[in-house]
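User: Hi! I'm working on a homework problem where we have to compare a predicted structure to a textbook description. Could you give me the structure for the chain below?
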Amino acid sequence: MVARPYHSASSAKLGARCERAWAYRYVLGYTTPRIAWNDTQPAIPAWADASRVDRTRALSRQRSTALGEAVHARLEAWYTPGATVNWHDLPGQIALSGAHLLPHPTRCFIAKPEIELGTEPLRYDGQTDDSPARGFEFGGVMWAGYTDLVVLPLESESVRLSLPPRTGVVYDYKTTASIAQYALTPATLATDLQACLYALAHDANHLRWLYLETKRVRRATPVDACISRDQAEAVVGPAAELCRRLDVIASVDDAEPNLDACADYGGCEYHITQGGPCNVRRSVSQLVSARVKKERTTMPLTPEQQAKFDALKKPKTAPAPATLPAPAPADTGAEVTVSAPPEAPPPVETPAAPPPAPKAKAPRKAPAGSFAELAAELAATEAALAEANTKLEAAKDAMRKALA
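Assistant: Happy to help. Predicted structure tokens:
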């Protein structure tokens, strides 16, 4: 057995979801081709069966990944001295929607974007410039990856952002189609493996996940969690045990498939129906669930936040162009007075409308195909026939009178 040189949160989460998918990714090295956001002709995997792959879904997955990476690049450039940031294209506007929830680069003691987890050097075959060069050990496993932002804001910025003063904060950017549906809650974030790894690697207990919506309306919201070292170790410990078991897998055939995970996230990208190499047969229930929208745990919102979300959903026109983030104002200590809005005129009383008359209850409809339904249809047919006979007899009487 040759252990992997390092594991990451995404590696452990994939292995926990399906060992077969993990083996395709980390043993055989199958990956979905990554494209740049500006590319207009994304590629389909070379190993995909073009006659079976759902091209629309595969391209949508690639586009979402490319858009998320472009948004991360904009925010990384914002914290890089001398870098130029394009706020005007789609990734820039999405990043800009959450800029006010980040400490301004000029208002920080420390601001480090895209830094590695840990300080222990890593040496392994296939290492590239984009691969992690340092990590940290916990539970007999080397962990590595990148943190979007580690920052120590000025006290005034901490107050503005409702962050604990004189405390380092770990940020992670998350692009999503729907904050209400997919954002973690503070409770679930405190048990998230990625958050706990960040807390151990940076010896920080305050983390903020910044969610940025990528659809028509620009929305952003932060989710905070305070994680102690004991809490982080309780989450990372079992994950390290799982990773040691995954390291024993030498081939795809040694990995157990999890049929319950085939429909996760719109369909597993390693399955043949999504253009991947995995050809395990899914049950009928899994095929149905892949096409049925699952219930998702929604993020609890305050009444004020919910009102803002509902107001933003109503307009059907494109949102107004975003504006550039202004530098944080200097602390002057001057007191700011906000004038009260003018009083509204008293409402005009109108006579109350009479209450509506109660509606008669409709008769209960019998189940389709039951004897009661057939009997009702027969009775209705007989009544219609009797009414037709009455009209026929009346017509005959009128004709007799006319001929007399």
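For your comparison, note the following. Residues 49-53, 293-298, 314-351, 364-370 have pLDDT under 50 and may be disordered. The two ends are 113 Å apart (CA to CA). Good luck with the assignment!
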